[in-house]
Amino acid sequence: MTDNRPGVPVSESARHPSDAAPDSAAVRAWLAGLQTQIADTLGAFDGTPFASDVWQRAPGEKLRGGGCTRILENGGFFERGGIGFSDVQGDALPPSATAARAQLAGRGFEAMGVSLVLHPRNPYCPTVHMNVRLLLATKAGEAPVFWFGGGMDLTPYYGFEADAQHFHRVCRDALAPSGDDRYPRFKRWCDEYFFLKHRNEARGVGGIFFDDYAEGGFDEAFAMVRRVGEGFLKAYLPIIETRRDMPYGEAEREFQAYRRGRYVEFNLVWDRGTHFGLQSGGRTESILMSMPPGATWRYDWQPQPGTPEARLYRDFLPVREWV
């Protein structure tokens, strides 16, 4: 969950957090409410309610705690959608969380968050991901070290400039009260993070991404994270409302399945959230709910020049400024 590449440093406030005590109960209550709000809104949009899978870690397991997975499969609009809330505790941070925090190795932890991925059936409607989370590194007799992480990013199969501009505009506005530097900083972090290095290719048109965030102390950092989480529906819902009835055929579905293969590659090979969950003994079904219901791979395939598929590679996947 930490990005320690050059140019994306661990924040000094994460290394030396504020003395203000983190209010984990307030974060937990907000996260649960956020999950409900998003699931209810998108279930109404789809015409199919999200089912609830409440789960609890069994005694003696590596992790303690539990959560609720809201899942929709084969809906009227969403081919698959998962909105997960979890609050788990463990006795030692996994390697993915201490790669840039050697001083925290061996500490216990509590990790709570909401993470979602939505896969519409219509190829003209983009896949979207959003995550907001709090992690506490704990040690008996010492104050917990806290940091927030999260963000959202958009993965279109057929690009529309208006959609990318709207999505980035909402991201920018959510971050603006925390400082004018936040959006360009977190946009660049997102562009660098959601990148398939083995393909030399972006996953989509980006958005914002941040980790190790505790700047200004707990209250200020939590306020920023709330604006991000509560901005998600403003960023995504207008896009799918606009595109939901666009006609498509088998060729568009085949290209969607091909690009979904890239989504799978990123989540399994590069995503530190996936690695954190699996390394810490997390619930596999919930961790992998982000996977699309179907994906394909073709050997050395390239889109034909001048096609809408080629335009995605030419105009949307290369990093650019949207707002």
Automatic annotation (TrEMBL):
Cofactor: a divalent metal cation
A GO CC term assigned to this protein in UniProt: cytoplasm
Keyword annotations from UniProtKB, A to Z: Cytoplasm, Heme biosynthesis, Metal-binding, Oxidoreductase, Porphyrin biosynthesis
Residue span of region Disordered: 1-21
Catalytic activity line of the entry: coproporphyrinogen III + O2 + 2 H(+) = protoporphyrinogen IX + 2 CO2 + 2 H2O
Gene3D superfamilies found in the cross-reference section: Coproporphyrinogen III oxidase, aerobic
Matching InterPro entries: Coprogen_oxidase_aer, Coprogen_oxidase_aer_sf, Coprogen_oxidase_CS
Residues annotated as catalytic: H129
Enzyme class name: oxidoreductase
Annotated site residue numbers, Important for dimerization: H198
Binding site for a divalent metal cation: H119, H129, H168, H198
EC assignment: 1.3.3.3
Entry similarity comment: Belongs to the aerobic coproporphyrinogen-III oxidase family.
Function recorded in the entry: Involved in the heme biosynthesis. Catalyzes the aerobic oxidative decarboxylation of propionate groups of rings A and B of coproporphyrinogen-III to yield the vinyl groups in protoporphyrinogen-IX.
Protein's name according to its UniProt entry: Oxygen-dependent coproporphyrinogen-III oxidase
Species name: Paraburkholderia acidisoli
